[in-house]
Design brief:
Blueprint: H1 3-27, E1 29-31, E2 37-41, H2 44-47, H3 60-67, H4 84-98, E3 102-106, H5 109-112, H6 123-138, E4 142-148, H7 154-158, H8 167-182, E5 188-193, H9 195-203, H10 218-245, E6 248-254, E7 257-260, H11 266-285, H12 293-305, H13 318-324, E8 331-334, E9 338-343, H14 355-359, E10 361-364, H15 381-394, E11 400-404, H16 416-434, E12 439-445, E13 464-466, E14 475-477, H17 479-490, E15 492-494
Parallel strand pairs: 2-3, 2-12, 3-4, 4-5, 5-6, 6-8, 7-9, 8-11, 11-12
Antiparallel strand pairs: 1-15, 9-10, 13-14
Helix pairs in contact: 4-6, 8-10, 9-10, 15-16, 16-17
The structure holds 2-acetamido-2-deoxy-beta-D-glucopyranose.
């Protein structure tokens, strides 16, 4: 054997052993960074119930599920949901069992402001959230509060909801009430949950309330007004409340990862990343602000060709662009899955005009990817890594809080699919952290099963199972709850940990 060959062999051997070592690290426990925080999340309409109790008025989800029950897969609704309005102490007990640092929940606007406006602040609504917050703080669990998680007051919807530019003031008034009532104890505020889903699935389509299906126009109006409302609430907090309350405020954007089907589709993937995540992130986190260039160009060109007098994508004023730039203390990220993309060469017919037609991209998931109980939510951990790296590159490494990540199953306590999902995604997240992404906290969706919008109770996202036959809505920890608990306790991820699931306890010394 020549020396050169020997050298090559040696290098190869060293490389193999290095890879093995890495493998071993991943096989055993991987540490989370110092100060890394863990939480779980829910949202008001999905868990609270008590839909018409103590002065609460109707939200768009009450209205939709009562007037159009067929829209929901099992014709169910959130009238009772998890009964958390009455069971909040048990919810906090579960947070203690898991050893959480924080819990993310949302405020029901029509519970706090039954007229939609601050002319009347409902004392029972305030009391409910005070009780929940105080119960959590008693055990050192920080509240992370989402101001808007989809349950818009029905009255405001009848006035256009996010399509009426006055929503900017209405929303800011609501945010002000929340800061005044709870800001002494709440240090993490999220302005909006998943703007793309709100606007595109609710206004530009029929996948969420209010199911307007005003394709190609309403979703863009919604996007603009929602973003401006976010920015206005940010600056209100920043100027009036932050100096004394010293909290953080940010927006939460849901994004899949879009992977080009092949090298020829790189630009296609870029387009959809900018139309989807970029639509809401670019105005806030990019250097220049405003909607992404590629989105402005494509919607303007299509609109022109379709005979519109102006682009269907409304413009921000220069003042709005400035107000939006930098208006978020963290990049709040919800993530579930990944899609392959290719250019639409006429193989898919989209409504015209529409967001899908404007970007002209086809997305799909190969049939051999691991499925979950929800369509289009296949298990693709590497996509999470790529998405986090993309955010780092695109927006100059903002501090990120994962505000949702989770897996849907059918009912059952032995949820090995969920355990595998969390292990896969958390390993991918740790890979991204090792490669420089500044992730500060991780939130599992969800603490417990809950009303999954138009899927009703047919799919389950909970670490705890909820018994919907039981009037008390008994909660029982799944296997994944025990695995999550151990991860939080040890601040490390052990792929081989096998929990003893006989009894869930509270570690009092935490
Ligand atoms: C939504 O609107 C498009 C036209 O823009 C139409 O083709 C489609 O059938 C509508 N969907 C529903 C469920 O009404």
């Amino acid at each position: 054997m020549t020396n050169v060959r020997l050298l090559i062999l040696l290098v190869a051997l060293i490389t193999i052993s290095e890879c093995k070592k890495l493998e071993e690290v991943k096989q055993t426990a991987r540490k989370f960074p110092d100060g890394f925080l863990f939480g779980t999340a829910t949202a008001s309409y999905q868990v609270e119930g008590a839909w018409n109790v103590d002065g609460k008025s109707e939200s768009i989800w009450d209205y939709l599920t009562h007037t159009n029950p067929e829209a929901v897969k099992d014709m169910s609704n959130g009238d009772i949901a998890d009964n958390s309005y009455y069971q909040y102490k048990r919810d906090v007990e579960m947070m203690r069992e898991l050893g959480l640092d924080y819990y993310r929940f949302s405020l029901s606007w029509p519970r706090i402001l039954p007229t939609s406006f601050p002319d009347y602040i409902n004392p029972a609504g305030i009391e409910y959230y005070n009780n929940l917050i105080d119960e959590m703080l008693k055990y050192n669990i920080q509240p992370m509060v989402t101001l808007f998680h989809w349950d818009m007051p029905q009255k405001l919807q009848e006035m256009g909801g996010w399509n009426n530019p006055h929503i900017v003031d209405w929303y800011t008034d609501f945010a002000k009430v929340a800061f005044e009532m709870f800001g002494d104890r709440v240090k993490y505020w999220i302005t909006m949950n998943e703007p793309y889903e709100i606007c595109h699935h609710g206004y530009g389509n029929v996948n969420l309330a209010p199911m307007l299906n005003l394709t190609g126009v309403a979703e863009y109006l919604c996007a603009k007004n929602l973003l401006v409302a976010h920015a206005k609430a940010y600056h209100l907090y920043d100027k009036m409340y932050r100096p004394s309350q010293k909290g953080k405020l940010f927006i939460t954007i849901q994004s899949p990862w879009f992977e080009p089907e092949n090298e020829g589709e790189t630009e296609t993937a870029r387009d959809i990343m900018q139309f989807d995540l970029g639509q809401f992130a670019h105005p806030i986190f990019s250097k220049n602000g405003d909607f992404p260039e590629v989105m402005k160009d494509k919607v303007a060109a299509k609109s022109k060709a379709q005979g519109y007098q102006r682009s269907r994508l409304p413009e921000f004023t220069a003042e709005e662009i400035e107000m939006l730039r930098g208006s978020s203390d963290f990049f709040g990220l919800n993530h579930y899955s990944t899609h392959l993309v290719h250019r639409n060469n006429g193989d898919t017919v989209y409504a015209q005009p529409s967001n899908y037609d404007d970007m002209n991209v086809v997305t799909y998931q190969p049939s051999d990817w691991v499925a979950s109980a929800t369509d289009r939510n296949k298990v693709v951990p590497w996509g999470f890594y790529k998405l986090l790296m993309w955010i780092k590159e695109e927006y100059d490494n903002p501090p990120v809080i994962i505000t949702e990540n989770g897996y849907s199953s059918l009912p059952g306590l032995d949820d090995i699919g969920r355990v595998d999902y969390y292990r896969g995604y958390l390993n991918a997240m740790l890979d991204a952290i090792e490669d420089g992404v500044d992730v500060r906290a991780y939130t599992a969706w969800s603490l417990m099963d809950n009303f999954e919008w138009l899927q009703g109770y047919t799919v389950r996202f909970g670490l705890y199972e909820v018994d919907y036959e039981d009037p008390e809505r008994k909660r029982t920890p799944r296997k994944s709850a025990f695995v999550f608990k151990e991860m939080v306790r040890t601040r490390s991820l052990d792929n081989n940990y096998e929990p003893d699931t006989t009894e869930m306890t509270i570690d009092e010394d935490k």
